[in-house]
Amino acid sequence: MKNKVRKAVFPAAGLGTRFLPATKALPKEMLALVDKPLIQYGVEEAIAAGCEQIIIVTGRNKAEIEDHFDISFELEQLLEARGKKDLLSMSRYISHMANIAYVRQKEAMGLGHAVLMARDLVGDEPFAVILPDDVIDARVPCLKQMIEVFEQTQCSVLATQVVEGPAISSYGVLDCTEVKDNPRLFDVRALVEKPKEEEAPSRHAIIGRYILTPRIFEELRETPLGSGGELQLTDGIKGLLASEKVYGYSFEGTRYDAGDKLGMLKATVAFTLEREDLGPEFREYLKSLNL
Ligand code: UTP
Description:
Helix content is 35%, strand content 25%. The chain is α/β, with parallel strands linked by helices.
């Protein structure tokens, strides 16, 4: 097994039902957060973390994702003719930013199934999984923080955040113990999927960033389909736990669930306020609302 995380898998074949009707024809991963599609934030994070190959798992109605990362001749010609140099270099940057391979998930049979589709492209090496609708605002990119943990431990790493109250029952939750001298790192004993609040083994909820060893593919192949005929990634990780150590890592930063309407609105406010070109005016506008 190679000990470097070079590849990042982006499952993007889901149906995006929480964001209907916007996602009826438009892939959820192409929804704009300020002025950039969600998936571009994730791809930029993977590159900043040192990943060399991006693997996007797509499905039906997902052609826009490929088009976005492809060269747009007409647009580039037009921008060149109009002397819009900044926009032209931005368009070229997007089409050259990464080495991207696509694989198709013919039916949305769950996150675990989507990851399994990337098996041949990943091969026998550790890899990252980024859920593009989880957008993370962090000083050090979340995946980079996780890769540092992987380099020290050579084990699978699951990013977590603390979730208080009944919202915990929407997540996979760690049953874990804190690693000595590292309050951000947890030794995972078990995973409990969507527990009732009173039955949650901890407050550490799994979010959309994973580093996984290639053994996960064998586990996923052997995992029976779960509820709704879907293959869950957490069920595969439970299998992994039987033979390997798995760590939880409480990353430094803020995560927004931009696949959810309210989450997207919160992310829009936070990311706009941080922008030099939009932030000051937007801040004044928000103040003027006197809420
Ligand atoms: P979500 O559960 O957030 O996505 O999966 P969803 O199913 O598309 O959305 P809702 O809940 O109906 O609104 C997280 C990520 O996993 C991908 C999704 O595209 C999303 O990026 N996914 C999910 C797949 O690629 N295939 C699947 O079968 C399911």
